[in-house]
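Can you make up a protein sequence with its backbone structure tokens?

===
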Amino acid sequence: MGIRHVVVWGLLLVAYAVGGAPLAAFQADGWRTSFAAGEEARAASDWSSYASHMAAAAAAMPDGHLNRPFVQYHAARAAALDGRDDEAVVWLRRAWDEDIEALMISFARFDPAFAGLEGMDAFEGVLDLAGSMSLPARQLGGAVVLLQGAGSNVVVQSGEDGLLVIDTGYGPALPALRAALGTMSGPDVDVLVITHPHEDHMGATPELGAEATVYAHPGTAAAMREPYVFMEGVELPPKPVSALPDIEVARDTSIAFNGETVRLVPTVAHTAGDLSVYFTESRVVHLGDTYLAGNPMMFPGSDDPKGFLDALEAFLDSMHPETVVVSGHDEPTDLDAVRAQIAASRACWSLVREAVGEGLTLEETAERADGLFAPQWVAFFYRLEVAQGG
């Protein structure tokens, strides 16, 4: 994936190298080890090894893991590159059926690895499954509803002013999204807010942006003007003018819509364009991928991590204590869950800061943190401390 678009995949999947020592060297065996070996094979164009390692990584991953569809996609494209077309389709179908982020398979339309499968009935049939999907709705509070299944959590506020929609999901989910919106104030969108520039959150922006006023962070606007890189060799073209934000939100901004105040708050860390949305009367906040329940701690970015954590805590403190929290994925939760991740980040960072101050190596720091914090997070904070001269 292009680094300008993705932080989470890199943080969870890639073995960081700090001071010449790769994290994979002291990670326990498991799916990450197989994934790293698969990436090495891919770089060497060893398609057979790429396929076997990615299949092993997918088999070793826990059920329901946030990153399963990404590894399954790798297994599918590796099988396709190795000439095992039927196996490639099986992996795509498995990613669809597990429904963690089923529409990730839609990248296969833009992936040269699958060029030989175009026109194959089984391949086309899997990719056409999006046409029959539906998005279940859940009431969150006030006039705010959650739509799930588009690839990311879509939040909708409806009322006399029309529809305010946060994120769109993947592009192929648009017909299902239109159908769900049609049961509210109608299928047309009046205000569209994009939480960050990842395709699973902004895929249908070209269509919806043509009818709506689009709000997004300047970092999202900049990313939309560039090709979207899913992974090396797989990219989508820049977004058309219709998708670009009409209003760029660089600071805490409030708008009045459907009788309540809606706050748009930059929470930049996951990408260069993160934006969170708080419905003050309905007591619902959409944090995008700033908060991911599957992570053991909060990723604070690397520009000003302390400032980010402090600002996010202040944002949470400004909300009603019973606010419903929506992340980009996962089930809705509460403010305490987000605060717990912030506390875990601070604790891990504190341990690493102390270890760096004592002159410990990355491996020694990971040994000290063993049983407390996962090695990939220890490595991230170690690299951060070293970069900041800690």
